[in-house]
Amino acid sequence: MAKDFNSQHVVDGYDVHIRKLIPGYEVVHQQIQALLRTYVNEHAHVLIVGCGTGYELGYLLQLFPNWSFTATDLSATMLDKAKQYIQPLDALHRVEFALADVDQLKTEQTYDAALSILVTHFVPYAQKLNFFKAINSHLKQHGVFIGFDLTAIKTDQERCMLQHICKANGLSTAQSTAMLSRLAYDFYPLSEQETFEQLSLAGFGSVQRFTQILSYQGFMALKV
């Protein structure tokens, strides 16, 4: 069964659980902020597609005090958690929250950067190109898109490696087995080649992979 991201129980346990599921979770965010520092100006407006519990948002709010953000999610429970997470940062005035998909955002608003971290692999295959096109349409010229997701697993050995690292990070055998079974029906991962092709078709250029941790890969691209 797919995770219910409207469940308060699931949302409350998300930040602990995700660190057991995703190898190098904090390292990925360190790489993302380095990319943003390189490609984005000091007074940027950044779109976060699928902000979840707000960890990523809070991290960037603290690093970039002159930036503003639009944070979307399809779960009202997640958005409430994100608001609670950043409340102590005294930064709510710099964030617009939207309970919406990216193609439902205000058409006139454009952004310097857009992030989709651990989100795109949940988008069904038939909807992925439109998802990327919607993100592209909300970016300024030469705006940067950064994504990090599970990519297509090709062998049993890759599945086994994922299970081993999740167990090393604290998942039980039962939890890691359930995680593997979810891959078959809860995720829609693209291969590296398919990711390049989809981003190019959506209007992005300069597509490149910036990181890989086992079957998780990060890609960046610029709006052309």
Can you characterise this structure?
By secondary structure, the chain is α/β, with parallel strands linked by helices. It has a single domain, classed as Vaccinia Virus protein VP39 (Rossmann fold). Helix content is 42%, strand content 24%. The chain has helices at 8-12, 14-21, 25-39, 55-63, 76-86, 125-137, 156-168, 173-183, 192-201, and strands at residues 45-49, 68-73, 95-99, 111-117, 139-150, 204-213, 216-223. The protein has a seven-stranded mixed sheet with strand order 3-2-1-4-5-7-6, with helices on both faces. It starts with 7 loop residues before the first helix and ends with a strand.
Could you give a short description of this structure?
The protein has about 220 residues and is of the alpha/beta class.
Secondary structure layout:
Layout: H1 8-12, H2 14-21, H3 25-39, E1 45-49, H4 55-63, E2 68-73, H5 76-86, E3 95-99, E4 111-117, H6 125-137, E5 139-150, H7 156-168, H8 173-183, H9 192-201, E6 204-213, E7 216-223
Parallel strand pairs: 1-2, 1-4, 2-3, 4-5
Antiparallel strand pairs: 5-7, 6-7
